[in-house]
Design brief:
The chain is an all-alpha fold and 177 residues long. It has one domain. It is built from 3 helices and no strands.
Length: 177
């Protein structure tokens, strides 16, 4: 007996490797489903995924632009802040200078006014001295003539004589003083 004769022969229907009618129908149904998916279902899904990826890329690009704009705005802010600090320091320095200038001008005006007041006072004192001297000359002259008249025993009513006596008396006073 040969080896072939001893192996049982299986009918073709029982062999799973041999295609049968059900297999062909299933294969045809699968191919139709793959074609339908490939034609109608997968392209919209791919388009949606591509659109979503593009939207994400755009959002990242906008985010990068926003970051760059924020950095630029921050740099501008810092620059403006530094400029404002420098300007404030300059304004303070100008104010100090103006204050010092105003104080100096006020001192100068006060000195000029004080000098004017002192000059006026000197002039007034000189005028008062002259007036007092004239008044004193009159009063002393009057007293001197009265006193001289009493001492001498005669009247000194003569104006010329009275003037000479007063002059002599004042000259003696100036010599002793």
């Amino acid at each position: 007996m040969s080896i072939l004769a001893s192996t049982p022969v299986m009918p073709l229907a029982d062999n799973f490797l041999v295609p049968n009618g059900t297999f062909l129908v299933e294969l045809l149904a699968f191919a139709i489903l793959v074609w339908i998916f490939g034609k109608y279902l997968i392209p919209p899904i791919n388009r949606a995924m591509t659109a979503r990826q593009e939207a994400i890329r755009n959002e990242f690009a906008e985010l990068d632009e926003a970051k760059a704009a924020a950095r630029t705005a921050e740099a501008d802010y810092k620059e403006q802040l530094n400029n404002a600090k420098h300007e404030a320091a300059k304004i303070r320095e100008d104010a100090r200078e103006q204050g010092a200038q105003i104080v100096q001008e006020a001192r100068d005006k006060a000195q000029v006014e004080a000098d004017r007041i002192i000059e006026h006072a000197h002039t007034q004192i000189e005028a008062d001295r002259k007036a007092a001297f004239a008044s004193l000359r009159r009063d002393v002259g009057s007293l001197a003539t009265t006193l001289a008249g009493r001492i001498v025993g005669e009247s000194m009513d003569d104006d010329e004589r009275q003037g000479r006596v007063v002059e002599r008396f004042l000259a003696d006073l100036e010599e002793t003083g």
